[in-house]
Design a protein that fits this description.
The complex is a heterodimer of chains A (302) and B (325).
Chain A (H helix, E strand, L loop, with lengths): L12 E2 L2 H7 L2 H4 L7 H7 L1 E2 L10 H13 L7 H12 L4 H4 L2 H11 L1 H8 L28 H10 L6 H7 L2 H7 L8 H16 L5 H15 L5 H4 L7 H9 L23 H17 L15
Antiparallel strand pairs in A: 1-2
Helix pairs in contact in A: 4-5, 5-9, 5-10, 7-8, 9-10, 10-12, 11-13, 12-13, 12-16
Chain B lengths: L14 E9 L2 E2 L5 E2 L4 E3 L10 E9 L2 H6 L3 E11 L4 E7 L8 E8 L6 E12 L2 E8 L4 E4 L12 E5 L17 E4 L6 E5 L5 H7 L2 H28 L3 E2 L5 E2 L3 H14 L5 H14 L3 H15 L2 H20 L1
Parallel strand pairs in B: 4-11, 12-14
Antiparallel strand pairs in B: 1-2, 1-5, 3-4, 5-8, 6-7, 6-9, 9-10, 9-11, 13-14, 15-16
Classes of the chains: A mainly alpha (302), B alpha+beta (325).
Chain lengths: 302, 325
């Protein structure tokens, strides 16, 4: 995987999923073939306007820095990259819901990152070359290489504080499992999950990954008959603060590398609600059955 | 996931009506709210720069059942969700003294929604010392459509006319000889009709006389059948999984397609078992060939292929008898 010969475009565009999928050959996913860049760019539609938000350079710089810093332990890149990617790509949820943007990032801006971060380790049993799952290039928000980081930062931040998001992304089971749950669309629920994760890891709990998965399942199952929003009310985010933060992208300097950036100051979750749910989830965590590793050997993580 | 309730729930009906709506303070035309289809089209012609829509809700609950039931601290909430933006907003509704209905407002922020949001109403209360239990839900959620110009539910499938040969969509060039194409990769499944295929759109949109009409019906059924089969396959390849590998319904149109076709593909199996069976067959290849035929038959039935074929055969034979007599 060479990192130097790649010449990214200057501006972000939108690449529709049906066109993107066609480029994901076995060779590309195995890192043995280059993507046909001209064709990829031709298939993409530019984003209108000249906002700085859609420049490629800041994202590219961030991704290269991540690959440099975490070459020894690539999964650790998630916790560093998620808040910084979120604070660099400032946008509304409506904008982030467009898969075309994420497809473009993974195929035209930083395919080298997708391969670096998500190439399965070890060798395949049948001797075939290892390759990255297509869903890391073009896939749902909880799988796609960039969408999962941006959305994790969005769902787990507490107003301008990316601290909880950093903790959530520091645990692969949390980012991989919790991000799929509808329950985390309620902010106190998401933050309470992080708080239980913190407690478990401070306590040095064994089988942390299994505990996190069991907790997520318990929270989700209980959520089918419990309305967390009624038990733990919250205030809607302040839209004007979010809009202002997005607009500040035009003049904001590049995100800091050594400390956490500041997110949009659109209001923090109610303390009392987070505490109520944390207490409830602590109980779930203590009671939830851990899965039988031998039986569940089918689940693969990459 | 269907919920299993370990406590008594409401049996009576929860009825939800959107009585009015406004966008940035301006009232929305009532024609954009359909009570029958339970759809609000939050769209104003020639403006996409709105920031907030407000819906006025009126909900009737089974009052007597609630009063006599074993629940305490009952409240009624509206839940607005959209999967694509991971948005879930819960608003409390209130009941004034002497009023028979619960009322309240739901705010729809443009920046947190992409295309279609679902508006559900739940009754919540405590039972057995546990607060916040869901006691009942409205049967059908309302749909808040941010892109549609008319309030209708018929957007499970989009039909677009495109020139495959000389049109602007370059990816369609390789298919220029195909009369149509079914694309299930996007937000909504789409049937693309090739306008460079001579006579096709005229036949489908303006058939004259019994023979042409029968042919148009047959072609439409053929397209629909292919669409259903393609949608089924595409939905089945897009499932979500628990960490122990249990498949779940994927949401959106994919879920509706699976829910409506699985009972015919695997008759007699409960829905979740049928989903697991379909997924296992597809993965393992075991029995997948037999399943194919059943998918085809289910798709054909949905597209009314048998009915249209009979009509065409009769129309043709009538026309021939006419010539030979």
């Amino acid at each position: 995987m060479s990192r130097t010969r790649f010449e990214p475009p200057a501006r972000l565009s939108l690449l529709p999923g049906n066109l993107a999928t066609a480029f994901l050959t076995h060779g590309v996913r195995a890192g043995q073939e280059d993507l046909p860049q001209v064709a990829v760019l031709r298939a993409s539609t530019p984003i209108e306007g000249d906002s700085v938000r859609w420049s490629v350079d800041p994202v590219r710089e961030l991704v290269e820095q991540a690959m440099l810093r975490f070459d020894a332990g690539r999964t650790e890149a998630d916790a560093w990259l998620a808040p910084r990617l979120h604070a660099t790509l400032r946008m509304s949820r409506a904008e982030a819901a467009n898969p075309g943007l994420w497809n473009f990032l993974s195929l035209a801006v930083a395919p080298d990152f997708v391969l670096w971060r998500h190439m399965p380790s070890g060798t395949a049993e049948d001797g075939a070359p290892r390759k990255v799952n297509s869903a890391r290039f073009v896939g749902p928000h909880y799988s796609q290489a960039f969408a999962r980081l941006w959305w994790a930062a969005e769902m787990f931040r507490d107003g301008s504080d990316y601290g909880p998001a950093e903790v959530a992304c520091g645990n692969q089971d949390m980012i991989n499992t919790a991000l799929r749950l509808d329950a985390i669309d309620h902010r106190p629920t998401a933050l309470a999950l992080v708080s239980v994760l913190r407690t478990l890891s401070d306590r040095g709990a064994t089988r942390l990954g299994d505990r996190v998965n069991a907790l997520c399942t318990a929270v989700n199952v209980a959520g089918t008959t419990l309305m967390y929003e009624v038990i733990a009310p919250d205030d809607p985010p302040r839209q004007d603060a979010l809009t202002a933060w997005i607009e500040e992208a035009e003049s904001a300097p590049a995100v800091p590398w050594e400390r956490l950036p500041e997110g949009p100051d659109d209001g923090t979750a109610r303390r009392s609600s987070c505490e109520t749910l944390s207490r409830m989830f602590e109980k779930f965590a203590a009671e939830a059955p851990l899965r039988d590793r031998a039986r569940a050997s089918r689940a693969v993580s990459d | 996931m269907s919920a299993v309730y370990a406590y008594p729930t409401l049996v009576g009906k929860i009825e939800v009506a959107v009585r009015g709506a406004s966008m940035d303070g301006k009232p929305l035309q009532l024609s954009l709210i359909s009570q029958r289809d339970q759809v609000v089209a939050l769209h104003q012609v020639e403006r996409d720069d709105w920031t907030e829509g407000v819906l006025d809700l009126e909900v009737s609950l089974p009052t007597e059942e609630l009063a006599e039931g074993p629940w305490a601290g009952v409240s009624c909430v509206a839940v607005l969700t959209e999967g694509a933006t991971n948005t879930r907003v819960v608003s409390r509704l209130e009941r004034r003294r002497g009023d028979t209905h619960w009322r309240g407002q739901v705010r729809v922020r443009r920046s947190t929604h992409a295309s279609r949001a679902l508006l559900d109403v739940s009754v919540v209360g405590s039972h057995g010392g546990v607060d916040g239990r869901i006691l009942g839900r409205a049967d059908t959620p309302w749909l808040v459509d941010l892109l549609g110009r008319t309030p209708s539910r018929q957007r499970d499938l989009e039909i677009l006319e495109e020139d495959f040969r000389d049109g602007p969509e370059e990816w369609l060039r390789p298919f220029m000889d195909a009369p149509w194409l079914i694309d299930t990769t996007g937000e909504l499944p789409t049937i693309l009709l090739n306008t460079s295929f001579e006579g096709l759109s005229e036949l489908l949109s303006g058939a004259r006389g019994p023979l042409e009409k029968a042919t148009a019906g047959l072609v439409a059924a053929q397209i629909a059948g292919e669409a259903w089969a393609t949608m089924f396959h595409s939905a089945l390849s897009d499932l979500e999984f628990d960490d122990d590998g249990t498949p779940h319904f994927p949401g959106g149109w994919r879920e509706s397609v699976l829910r409506s076709m699985l009972p015919e593909v695997f008759p007699g199996l409960p829905l979740h078992d049928a989903l697991r069976e379909a997924h296992d067959c597809r993965g393992a290849g075991r029995g997948w060939a037999e399943v194919q035929s059943r998918i085809e038959v289910a798709a054909g039935k949905r597209s009314q292929m048998p009915k249209n074929l009979v009509a065409t055969i009769r129309a043709v034979s009538r026309a021939q008898e006419g010539t030979y007599r």
